[in-house]
Amino acid sequence: MARSLLSLSGLALLAPLVHAAELKRITADFGPNPTNVTFNLYVPDKVAASAPLLVYPHWCHGTAEQAFEYKPWRGLADTHGYIIIYPSSPWEADNCWDVSSSDTLTHDAGGDSLGIASMVRWTLQEYDVDPDRVFVTGVSSGGMMTNVLLGSYPDLFAAGSSFAGVPAGCYAADGFGVWNADCAEGRGVRPKVQVFHGDSDEVIHPVNFAEQIKLWSAVLGTGAEPTETVADTPQAGWTKTVYGDKGLLEGSSPPGSRTTSLISDCFSRKTLEKLESGPSCKKRKARKA
């Protein structure tokens, strides 16, 4: 009997090792990738039908592997069955993202953003992913790339959350400019955006919270003045601001320099059920001229 119990205990210990999903480095040709961005993919053991897809670009001096360990996306993916892309910057000097070149700021022109867009397109082809539930989030340089991806590829991303980032194009070289009728005339699809920034951030100055709000309120046509301000939301001490009446743009300014990954609520079934009667983070909505 004792031996049988020991055997069962051994099997119980081995089971998670045998069945647990792992981060996988993708070596296949996944499409146009002019700067040689690499990526890892996390596919949980149980993937939901028509699953959401999350892209999580890392911070400066970070890696895809560190991003995989740093935030709780893996556990949420295991619970809710969504897939995660973890890109790795090709710039070995600092592992930051290219958020300034004209190529990366332009749809399908090149730069790191095109490599990441190719990862998304490849994953949409290879896995049962809902193309209307592709999301992006990141912190610091990853937050900057989040804004770039939302701005350059609104056809791919339904929504995103930037943590301690800067507006898309903030670091563009002098003289950069592209005329685009869809943008200038307010046509085409628009992503939903949440902006989080600690009011005492000593690395990325808090003024960039207001700058990101200015950027996206102009793009989304919500106006830069909040239509609603809610204290102690989503946590005590935080201030939530809402812009416009369609749930397209929200900001949260917590005290201190560290922010919590509350955007994970958008992947929580409980939250999604609550949002059924109001603005939802689940689906993109096209904006008509």
UniProtKB/TrEMBL annotation:
The keyword Signal applies. GO terms for cellular component: extracellular region. It comes from the Eukaryota. Keywords: Hydrolase, Serine esterase, Signal. The keyword Ribosomal protein does not apply. Pfam families: Esterase_PHB. One of its GO terms (molecular function) is carboxylic ester hydrolase activity. Residues 1-20 form the signal peptide. PANTHER family: FERULOYL ESTERASE, UNNAMED PRODUCT-RELATED. This is Carboxylic ester hydrolase. It comes from Parascedosporium putredinis.
